[in-house]
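Help! Submission page says 'invalid entity' but I think these are all valid:
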Amino acid sequence: MTVPSVLDVRRLTKTFPGTTALDAVDLEVRDGEIHALVGQNGSGKSTLIKVLAGYHTPDPGSEIRLAGEPLTHSNLAGHDRLRFVHQDLGLVLELSTVDNLALRSEFLTSAGRVRWRAQVRRTHQLLADFAVDLDVHAPLSAATPVQRTVVAIAAALAGWDGGAGLLVLDEPTAVLPPGEAAHLLEIVRGVRARGTSILYVSHRLDEVLTLADRVTVLRGGRVVATRPTAGLGPETLAALMAGADVDVGYRAALPPVDRNPLALTARNVRGRYLDGVSLEVRQGEVVGVAGLPGSGAAELVPALAGAVAGADGEISVGTVGAVPVARANRLNLPIVPSDRLRDAVLPGMSLAENLTISILGRLRRGPGLAHSRERSTVARWMADVRVKAASERVGIDTLSGGNQQKVMLARCLARDPDVLLLADPTSGVDPAARQAIYELVAERARAGLAVVVTSADVGDLLALCTRVLVLGNGRVVRELNGDEITEHTLIHAMEETGQR
Amino acid sequence: MTNTLERPAASRPPATERVWTRWATAVSPRSIGAVYILVVIVVVFSIALPSTYPTLATVKQVANGYSITALAALALVVPLATRTFDLSFAYVMTLSGVTAAHFVVHGMSAFAAMLLGMLVALVIGVVNGLVVVVMRIDSFIGTLATGSLVQAFIIFFTNAQIISGVELAGGFSQLAQVQIVGLTGPAVYAVVVALVLWFVLEHTVVGRRIYAVGFNPDAARLATIAVDRIRFGGLLVSAGVAGFAGLCLASSISAGSPTAGTAYLLPAFAAVFVGATQLKRGRFNAWGTLIAVVMLGAGTVGLSLSAAPNYAADMFTGVVLIGALAATGLQRRRIRRG
Amino acid sequence: MQRKSLLVLLAAASAVILAACGGGGGGSAASAPVDQAGVQRAADLVQGASVRPSDLNVTEPIGKPVPPGKVVDFVSCPAADCNVIAGMLKVHTDKLGWTLNVLTTDGSPGSQQQAFAQIVRDRADGAIYIGIDRGVYERYLPELQANGTWMVSVCSTNPQGNGIDFAICTPDQQRETGRLMAASVISHSGGRANAVYVNVPAFDNLSKLQDEFLASMKELCPACPTASQDVPITALGNGVPQLVVGYLRAHPDVDYVVLAIDSLASGLPAALKAAGLDHVEIVGQGGGDTTWQYIKTGEQLASVPWPYVETYLAGLDSIVRHVTGVQAAPSQLPRFWIVTKNNVAETDLKVDGITPVVIGADAKFAQLWGASS
């Protein structure tokens, strides 16, 4: 071996009661390399990361070496040469950047007193490499997602001398819009340039292909392939992940809807980042809402659902009279929210309970709940949206992101809505599940469902939309129709708004 | 009933195995740790006190002696399931008892006085709802404040005097002192209340919504659940059940004591939190709460039978609470991630 | 994981065993011959005490006009009774044209110290406080003495003297109560009682009461097995009935429960009934409305009411004498009274919400002070 390896995992096996999550996995990250780890949800990626983080104990016979030093479960946790940025970032949003960095690395103290001025200086030093404009005193809840990710990376790298070691980035771009994601990739390259090897976990194949040197594909807990990215195409990679060909260039190609009656009308919607947006959506139409962060694109859809405090404007579904958006939650206007864990998943409840929560009124039998009717309803929806789970009784938190999202979609569709609102419908979802979600939405749209979708992932809009509204400064500035909607025109239109 | 048509058969284990696993899960220490500790308690005391402990009298003493604690703990199940604290419940217990006792002593019929007691309890429930749900004050602080106001009102109303009178020994005392197959009224009421709570929480639409509000209020709101109404309702339920527990307490001591309920604050919270680790892990539930009360009662009665030193009961409670939570709560975290 | 749950179970089990081992055995009923002479003496004692006393035992009138405008500080306690006492004292200080400052405490030494600091600032002419050990206020005594504040210590273990100007309801004064409770048990049982004395060690001023009860049982009924059981102060809210029931089930021969203070009986009759222990008789001391009710309904056998009115008015009397410049009267209480079903109706006569032992105790004191209402 010519290039020494930073991380060398051999025959890593992890079994849980009833399942084998990892089956003799070999993974090698070379010094100075960006190594991507891809795989669908449930392929074992998360388990692998959790073993490396010292959270799970690997089965006997597994071997993990870090720069040649053999590691066991007990000295993995908190190892100084192995640092993590987890998907949830591990930040305290109520606290400021200064506080978060201090919490994660160390407090500068003299005689037990925190030296805040020095702490602030240090915060600026830590962030200096990342070219990010951020009020370090404001609570992180006010920061954008990319700023938070940068803070998390800075926190993970605090005190790192740049020697041989590994930074593990778990889905860092999952919630980032394209421009921001590109910025983050630059940051990751910068980290590597300073001598740190990186294990990069992502769903975004294009990212993986442009960023990584080599990629390891996991499927069903096994390594399917480890290959250099040079010469590798997204189709090949997706095929390796799925085990079958997946259309990454999916287009719903929905029929024109000009004659269809109106399904949704919104007038003069105002609120945070929204400065009077009106829109009309016809039955069977999928309308996209695009825009840079701060343009109002991300805020419009939740505002339509009545989920944004302080938003005003009027909304009507079908021919029913208009109501203020603040009361939109009384309409049959379901939303798949952008932040699944925060706004949609009912943790601690089962798959079935999550699915039927919005349609319980229909599952009454006398004073009680018709359990058998609920079971058959759930079984039908699980089949319809192709949720993969051992049973409908499993906890929602045991499902992969893709399967959770399918359950959330089923929850909304079960209400038999005329209009469906989607926000980042494929965030944290693997390509196969993404494909399934596209097909599901398109199928419903062909049957007359009107959809309003916003997504930081332009791919979602390309795949689904018959029309895209581009927002800038809280107003609709462009409208793209049918064939006009291409990656190039979309991104161009969004970036134009940024120039104003 | 089988749904083989709708369920792909290959993805699930055979039915017998499933039934077995379900049983294995149901009786594992992870789901009913308190029952295991209860068994240990019973075995140890039965060996130590073979003539007095393993008797029907002990069963009755546990059931009768801890029935009011059980009612108090059950009062908390619904609000806590919606992640709303109700610290005022103990004062509501006092208030309903004092109110009913006052009116009985002043010549009102026991039944009418009890109705009045329930009414004032529900009024406090409404006040709690206004403070916590409408004014959006944190429930922990909000109900602490209303509880404090209730206590102040009780002191004002009673001049800190115990309300007593021979009238209380009549029909009023029957509520708690009536015997039904060897059990006193409150023991039976506790089982009935648990039964109702179990049915509502497990087998009705409202119950499902209550848990959803507790697990993620934002998601519940987006899923069209009237979150505020459910939390308000939860506080009414706790006030109502606590009011009833207070009537039982006043009836059993045949007096309206201006501080009677306070002693139930901590035991009830301890029981309901242990209960949440039993049977339905992570969910506040009625039977789990009763199991927790019985476990604590069985140990305390055993200690009093063995004339243990007077620090033993508190020590026992502490050790057992930690034990029950460790046997279930800690392991739950590992499983969930697994 | 299995190992961990096993460990937890073991820990719980060992705690149970440990706690269980602390217990001791109880006395068993012996069928020794009944000491008829002792039973007779007990009966005589009860007989005598059944008649309500009419004499305060403080008889020396002041004989001089009481100066108005004096200030008395009363250190209250968190118990309900203290508020009632404060109210009663207020009525009397008002009659004298004096001011009563009620200093509330939460029962903690810290809040009590604050109250004493307040007495110093008030430059009160007298201070009355309940069940507070002198260790709490020792450091204020020199200043209080310098201010001329007359210190009245009620129901504590500290003797009179050394800065405490007047001590009343002392453990020695309580002894007779214990003797009367024993007499009540013996005479009711005809010398065949098996009694348990329920004590609260936290109330250390009640210790001699227990000693006297046990000694009198031995003296008047050597054949009566007698034991005592401590209950923790934390059980006072709701745990006492179950502790007593547990004790009685472990000692099925016991048929008399004697309570260090009547408030321990709260809920006890119902718990005894539920446990099928209705035959067990309850005797207590202290009194109060709940107690009278229990006696009226036959749920409690007897109680020796504490002369609260007389105690506090005697304390106030000592202040009156001090500020008037009259020789202090000795710390004296009226003869004790025993309340049973036969004479419980007499408890309905009250002074400001409290049943006095001596009828018209308040008027009698007012007469001594020349402060007629």
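Support: the input was valid. A stray whitespace character was the problem, and the output above is from the cleaned input. Residues 288 and 355 of chain C are 7 Å apart (CA to CA).
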